[in-house]
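Worked Example 4.2. Consider the chain below.
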Amino acid sequence: MASLWQNDGRDGWTARALEPGDWFELGRSGEAVGRVGVAGRGAVVLTRYRDEVTGRERWVMLAGARAGARVNGQCVQTGVRALRDRDVIEANGETWFLSTERLPATEPYTATASGATCRRCGLSMESGQAAVRCPRCESWHHEMNDRRCWTSLTGCAGCGRQTSSESYVWTPALL
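Applying the procedure from the previous section yields the following structure tokens:
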């Protein structure tokens, strides 16, 4: 799940999870105000869609003419901009960072047509089993009472991302 980072005014950064749902308007007060009703000409709106080829979550920004929106320092002249991880969004006198990093979480595995195997033990993943999908490489690991393939390692078997991390690997403070 993506997050929108904003400077909290105390020399720190706060992440707001962009929950799956409708559209998110970046308010003039500097906060992401959530679902949009009717957006005005100065509005900046973020929405997500699922890429049909990769199945990955993608984000798009729609910016009204009066918002003066910029992404990574470049004007959004057409009013539409595809967003990527760690993009800097400036509009209405405020600055945000979009992060597509997800935190690892145990969830029921949902079988796909191609199926999947656990990157640690190599056994097949069964629909409904408790599992963790690595936020970085998206490989699946078992996380059941009798088979804790994710938490038994210090890093993902696919890419090495820390398994014990309950915090974000990247924040704007690292810039």
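DSSP finds no helices and 14 strands in the chain. The CA atoms of residues 154 and 160 lie 8 Å apart. Compare this with Example 4.1 before moving on.
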